[in-house]
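Reminder: ligand-aware prediction takes two inputs, not one.
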Amino acid sequence: MTVAPTLFRFEDSYAREVPGLSVPWTAAAAPAPELLVLNEELAVELGVDPAELREPPGVALLAGRAPEGVTAVAEAYAGHQFGVYSPRLGDGRALLLGEVIDVKGRRRDLHLKGSGRTPFSRGADGKAVVGPMLREYVIGEAMHGLGIPTTRALAVVATGERVIRERALPGAVLARVAASHLRVGTFQYAAASGDGDLLRALADYAIARHYPEAAGAPNRYLDLFRRVVQAQARLVARWMLAGFIHGVMNTDNTTISGESIDYGPCAFMDAFDPATVFSSIDGRGRYAYGNQPQILQWNLARLAEALLPLFDDNGQAAVEAATEVLNGFTAAYERHWAEGMAAKLGIAAPDRALAQDVLTLMRLQTVDFTRFFRALSAGTARTLFAEPGPFDAWAARREVLLPADRAAVAAAMDRANPVYIPRNHRVEEALAAATEGEMGPFRRLADVVSRPFEERPGLEDYAGPAPVSRTPYVTYCGT
Ligand code: AMP
Ligand code: MG
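Here is what comes back for the chain with magnesium ion:
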């Protein structure tokens, strides 16, 4: 089969400019690649013709076959997983195919997941299966539709191979697009190497790629850190406002760019409860919904530790400067959250008490988080409360804070509050069907959640949670 060198013009700035943090590697061959889903909108954004990607050479590329002259690399990184440090994680089942300059001039990584063993596989098989890769696809599209910074899937290709999990499952490769794959764990790895020049090269690379404005700051590395703190505070606020639970907020899954990454056992909450945990591997609830901002700040403290030698030659001064920046996380997070809640509630200015109080009511009366805000703009929120008295009292407080033009308020609220999120039972149903070879439900779900704010007739079944009689929803890690 011929390769298609014209599809993408790959660049390799990461491998060249930060040598020592990646290993050249080749993806495993897929015996019978079959394109399950292609993100045509994203393909166009990357400057390629979707029709060409659907041809056999395009599918082969999406399954991991690098064009002639292109060398994929496995990236090295470390990380704290559930609070425990691992000095060597890295791309154990993933490869960076290369960087593509998109039609808007942005440099974006094209990365493969499920492409076979690498020097970082640590005894695991390097593979991925159809269900979890499609989950990453649909969650990424939902996040994008919600306007939340995220990596996005370009395609999922079934490899034609059976992969052994709890049973034999169809193997798959996900092709993913990201602003970059620089993570907190990348900095931890560089710092632990003891090579100060490598750490500095990585930080300079991150500045050039994501925060070029930091280059002119008096302390460019501290400014880099400040910008990452700000980007991540904004990101986690957006998660909280959408009811999103990432599930594995390890430091290797926390980006420098401020994009959400690595959708494993993630899910959207139905009834509001800060203690919500879906992941089967998070027995203690470390990454519960309500803990996410605090965990993010903890991860950023690990980034600060890695960067300390660059902040100041004087260790004490470095720690003080880093602490001050890190302490700015809380205010930034609170501001984004309060502004976001004001938009969701339709009030002109943030009102923290009003926002907190309605969340408490929702928790006490097990009210669906997503549904509540749309019902609020429609004037039907009261019906969601079994005991409406406390809601009425709250609604009277809100009433006096609303701008005069009520139609405009409702319209603006409907631009902030989604009708459709990837409801857990819908995701499960779509992935189960896809695993059996039936892609219809998945395509429908991906379409529904990619336009989350616009109510469409016939999609009522996507707008609410599953009947409550079900057993608690559990998500499994994406391996
Ligand atoms: P993740 O949970 O996907 O963020 O992965 C955490 C670490 O485990 C990364 O270093 C992955 O490369 C590695 N990993 C996860 N699944 C596999 C697998 N099936 N084979 C090899 N490495 C894996
Ligand atoms: Mg990861």
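The CA atoms of residues 92 and 120 lie 4 Å apart. Residues 1-5 have pLDDT under 50 and may be disordered. We will return to this case in the review session.
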